[in-house]
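#structure-requests
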Amino acid sequence: MTEKNRKLDVIIPSIHSRDLLLATMVSYNRFANGFDLRFIVVENSDDTSYKDEVLSRFPTCIWLQNPTELKNSEANAVALEVGLKFVDTDCVFLCHFDTLATHLAWMQFIYSKIDEGYSLVGFREDATRIHALHSSGLLVKTEIARAVSLFPVGDEMDVCDSLTKYCRDNNLKYYKCRCTFNDKELREKFDKSLPELNSVDIGCNDEDVPIFMHIGRGFQRINKLYNKQGRTSLETWIALANRIATL
């Protein structure tokens, strides 16, 4: 299979998140650059108010209704595991609904790491617990994603941390992209050039070009439960997404 016809399933857990979800999907599709992305949206509620719009704009999308009483990381994990049942590509991209692809070569870059022999590629490494690659954006071999439980384990591991642990335990290589969350020098660089995105995780390729962004706290933001001063606003994020959509 060549890069220009490479198929890839993308699982996106969602909950009452029309605007952020569509912004994510539009940006991924806008910068697909030859990759055939199939979205698997797992709605963790009985909300169908934006289902038709999603399926109309992305006809190959699989919409899975998954009402659950689980919250936060556990809800995210159950959605990802539900979505995995429908994956039929060798690799799968797991992500949050409050992320954006920001460069034409974003998927080409992270998939090139799989081709180089890495089994897992992510944009951020958590600074606590087991220092695992964060579930905001992960490209992983499907067989590995299905080999473990994605659920959190007490205070030791968060959702998807098991993927990093699996790679470590089995001597498999995984790749961490440079990210402003982990790299102080990179953070300071973008604080100067992109001050409006001062609290956003910005993931880069090997030339420090931003290719992926995660605003974080998406559910809290859309429910007006996140009001930290000086942080990137939801309005700024949506404006960025709209610019990407019209490029």
